[in-house]
Design goal:
This is Pentatricopeptide repeat-containing protein. The chain has 257 residues and is mainly α. Helix content is 77%, strand content 0%. It has 15 helices and no strands. Helix 4 packs parallel to helix 6, helix 5 runs parallel beside helix 7 and helix 12 runs antiparallel to helix 13.
Length: 257
């Protein structure tokens, strides 16, 4: 068979393995790797290794998978993090201590070798969202042991907050707020306050809306003027809502709080 024919066979076989990812076999990938090395490396090495990693995951070989992730992380950062998210979710959800330790070792190695906290953020997220108290403690430990982690976590808060409020997990939102307040991250904290106000406003919960507004004033992280006006109309049960200027709002809030 001509050389180009062999190259096409190798590449075609590789694409076939990609399409049938769930049924991917290690031996088949090994054969493709050998053909690839023998006939000119027509398939990108990092791409091939990422397929090996997914195959190892499918076959329960976490050690080999994480080894590939770590080696090729600088080249395949986006792909690794994309694949890693559901993997970490599954591992944390399965409550396998040994597997979680392997994830922890991996994310720590990425921080040490590459200074990248994104994989650690993924682990923190699922430990934090876990219903197990011990997992929540591990999430706290990650934060306390990695002072730069909060810098990355704060950017997760909008998406996490939206997700949790959608499923009415207010307690989780409050735990995030405690973390942000502890680390003096007032900008994302203010964003969550606005979201909480909208959540309770939609439910028609006057008491909670008042508490949120009072809290925002006390911390000097005021909510938008539109929300302030809505609260006043809500308290007064005014169905014909009009914008209330700042001076009037300030007077009413002094009386209200």
């Amino acid at each position: 068979m001509p050389l180009m024919g062999l190259l096409k066979v190798s590449e075609s076989a590789f694409r076939n393995y990609q399409i049938h990812g769930k049924h991917r076999q290690i031996n088949g990938l090994v054969l493709i790797e050998r053909l690839n090395e023998k006939y000119g490396n027509c398939i990108n090495k990092s791409e091939l290794q990422m397929n090996f990693a997914e195959a190892y995951w499918a076959n329960g070989n976490l050690h080999s998978m994480f080894k590939i992730f770590e080696t090729f992380y600088p080249v395949e950062t986006t792909k690794v993090n994309y694949v890693l998210d559901p993997i970490v979710h599954t591992i944390v959800k399965s409550h396998g201590v040994a597997s979680v330790v392997m994830v922890s070792n991996f994310v720590n190695s990425i921080v040490v070798r590459y200074g990248d906290y994104h994989p650690m953020c993924i682990l923190w997220k699922y430990l934090f969202l876990s219903e197990l108290f011990n997992d929540n403690l591990e999430a706290e430990k990650l934060l306390s042991q990695n002072t730069n982690l909060i810098e990355n976590i704060q950017y997760l808060t909008p998406s996490l907050t939206r997700k949790m409020l959608k499923t009415h997990k207010v307690e989780c939102v409050q735990r995030i707020m405690i973390i942000l307040l502890k680390h003096k991250r007032m900008e994302p904290y203010q964003w969550i306050l606005r979201s909480l106000f909208e959540y309770y406003y939609t439910l028609g919960n006057v008491r909670q809306c008042k508490e949120i507004m009072k809290h925002s004033i006390e911390l000097n992280v005021p909510l938008p003027q539109a929300q302030q006006s809505r609260l006043i109309h809500m308290v007064l049960n005014n169905k014909h809502q009009q914008k209330i200027n700042k001076e009037v709002t300030a007077i009413i809030f002094k009386l209200m709080f």
